[in-house]
Amino acid sequence: MKFTAPVFLVSRVLVDLHCHTRPLSQCSALSPLQAAELARARGLDAICLTEHDRWWDEAELAEISAQAHIPIFAAVELTTDLGHVLAFGLPRTAAPLATVEAAFAASEAAGGVLFLAHPARDGLLKVDHRTVEYFASVEALNGSDSRLQNIAAAGLAHGFRLPGIGGSDAHMPAEVGRAATRFASPIADTTALVAALKFGDYRAEYID
Ligand SMILES: [Zn+2]
Ligand SMILES: [Zn+2]
């Protein structure tokens, strides 16, 4: 189902779906506890950690979540031949996932869903014949990209079966929660997040 009428999204369930923390993402200055606490302080309802090609231990995340008093979900940002891919519901695997074909096969086997991350970041929309086949949609709003890049990404999202997602792509404290995805219903855990993403009742939003 493709969401088109904002008036139906009466609940306020905001989740930052794209965030990096160290040590799993060495490029980040954020600890997971810090990211979660900042998300909570900024009024978000949950945060999803998406480390570069690395998976979180769910039990470890549950502990940090309890400390920060906010749900923390886990996904992964894969580095593939078609760019960065946000994979939800994809378990840790020993197989290399450097191609979208491999990532899609693993995701389908696990019941996951893939979104092309920041598709307009390099000044070029990353679209080829594989794009619509492998991705449910794209990241329509990335907090690290410019407004113009996000306009292009949001336009691209219209061509997919699901709406585009939003996330901060935070690597620094000030960046946490500057963009997010607003869901129509509460989300209890990562499994529920995957189901909500597949259902499609959400939209990407900037957070002021
Ligand atoms: Zn990326
Ligand atoms: Zn990222």
Structure characterization notes:
There is one protein chain. The protein has 208 residues and is α/β, with parallel strands linked by helices. The chain has helices at residues 32-41, 58-68, 100-110, 131-134, 147-157, 190-199, and strands at 13-19, 46-52, 72-80, 83-88, 113-116, 137-142, 165-167, 179-183, 202-206. The chain has one domain: Alpha-Beta Barrel (TIM Barrel). Helices cover 27% and strands 25% of the residues. A 9-stranded mixed sheet has the order 7-6-5-4-3-2-1-8-9. One zinc ion binds at residues 18, 20, 77, 169.
Summarize the structure.
The chain is 27% helix and 25% strand. Helix 1 packs across helix 2.
Number of domains: 1
Assembly status = single chain
Query: How would you name the CATH homologous superfamily?
Result: Metal-dependent hydrolases
How many extended strands? 9
Distance between the termini: 28 Å
Low-confidence parts:
5-10
Tell me what the CATH architecture is. Alpha-Beta Barrel
The arrangement of helices and strands along the chain is EHEHEEHEHEHEEHE
Given helix and strand content, the structural type is: alpha/beta
Radius of gyration: 15 Å
Keywords, please?
9 strands; 208 residues; nine-stranded mixed beta sheet; alpha/beta; single chain; TIM Barrel; 6 helices; binds zinc ion
Layout of helices and strands:
Layout lengths: L12 E7 L12 H10 L4 E7 L5 H11 L3 E9 L2 E6 L11 H11 L2 E4 L14 H4 L2 E6 L4 H11 L7 E3 L11 E5 L6 H10 L2 E5 L2
Parallel strand pairs: 1-2, 2-3, 5-6, 6-7
Antiparallel strand pairs: 1-8, 3-4, 4-5, 8-9
The structure holds zinc ion (ZN) (2 copies).
One zinc ion (ZN) binds next to loops.
